[in-house]
Amino acid sequence: MNKITITMKNLNKSLLLIGLFCMSFIGYGQGETEFVPRLYTPATPACVYHENDYEGTSRILRSQNVLNRSGAPCSTFIVNYTGFTPEAQAAFQFAVDIWAMSIESNQTIRINASFDALAPGVLGQAGPTGFLTSNHPDAVPNVFYPRALWEKIEDTDSSPFGGSIDISSQFSSTFNFYFGTDANPPGGQIDFVSVVLHEIGHGLGFTGFAFTDGTTGQVRDTGTMLPSVYDITIENGSAQSLLDTAIFTDPSTALHAQITGGDLFNNGTITTVQNGGVKPKIFAPNPYQGGSSYSHWDTNTFPISNVNTLMTPSIGPGVAVHDPGPITLGMFEDMGWSICGGSLLSTQNYSLDTVEVSPNPFTSSLTIKLPIASNDNYNLNLFDINGRIVLSESREATNGTITISNLDQLEDALYFVKITNEKSGASFTKKVIKN
């Protein structure tokens, strides 16, 4: 966990400090006041990704949206490889291409990737090489942005010399990884594409500053007392922001209780919409797990085979996850990333004209007919007019048809039914009436 590459700790840090010094003369000025971005360089990786003891197989393939954009990336990545075999490099590039067809940036995203001897049970570790503040109109003031996102928002390299490294990553040199790209790892092997996809997600910004020493918790960077853009959307089950100093002194034992209380959620607008109107739960176990706690989705909420499981803190042999998941992409858009193909709030994965929900009005059951006669599994959520979930279940379509029964107990009212393909993340919502 405490291993830091030379690139992150020395060379890259030195270049950035020189860059920021130069920027103070070049100026990010507005009026008579020059803006100089603050720099925070992490001492440890954002994520330490572990193997779990899951027994079985599970496959989540690339989303249809990514497949539709194959060969037409929305961002450019350059990877510096150390110790990679040709097949390992091909698998890494496959994961890179999924992210390149998921997020947009005019700035090249650069990654250092190496095979190293990591701690037992650790598959990989990664994170942003640095965080910077911004005064751009699209940024939140006095908040740290991971380097790649900062460069996207500012539309410039974070070093005046160019070529800054945005993400540092290391992968275990001792694990028996599966380097295929077909999302079909045999039993006993860890799917390398999934591990890389996960770690790049952290490097792009799926990470916050919260930590605890076992007694006292803290959410902000110690030196500047500023949070990251990830931190500003975290709240507890009582809708209390961890950054609200009127409730939580930072640092404090109260924040320790929050960070280890198993009751944290992301309240981002698009994130919540992508999770069916429900704030997705954050992994916050007791005791605190460095490299896992706070900067992952909750494992019980998003179990294996869920389309959003990529950014949970561990993966087992025989499991492949080749899709970031709709709520992770929603969170990225909330943070400031642009999503390839346009905002998730305006994207409709199915044409509503080709989806039939009947009868409408309904009395005791609803039948959903999809434009594709598939037998995929779907998440079904029925919301009332206040956004509360009144029904939630997972169902398998039969030749593109799903029937929801036993709705007699619902009150006569207006409802919204949302159905999400568990494999691709594609979803749609329709209005229905009960009478």
From the spread of the alpha carbons, the general shape counts as globular
Radius of gyration: 22 Å
Query: Mean pLDDT, as a whole number?
Result: 87
| Number of strand elements | 27
What does this structure look like?
The chain is α+β, with helices and mostly antiparallel strands and 435 residues long. Helices cover 20% and strands 25% of the residues. The protein has helices at 6-26, 64-68, 86-100, 147-154, 192-204, 253-259, 269-274, 326-335, and strands at residues 39-40, 47-51, 58-60, 77-82, 103-104, 109-116, 122-128, 131-132, 145-146, 167-172, 177-178, 190-191, 211-212, 217-218, 234-236, 264-266, 281-282, 314-315, 319-321, 338-339, 356-358, 366-369, 377-384, 389-396, 401-404, 414-421, 427-433. The strands form 9 sheets. The chain has a 6-stranded mixed β-sheet with strand order 4-6-10-7-2-18, covered by helices on one side. The model is unreliable at 1-32 and 346-352 (pLDDT under 50).
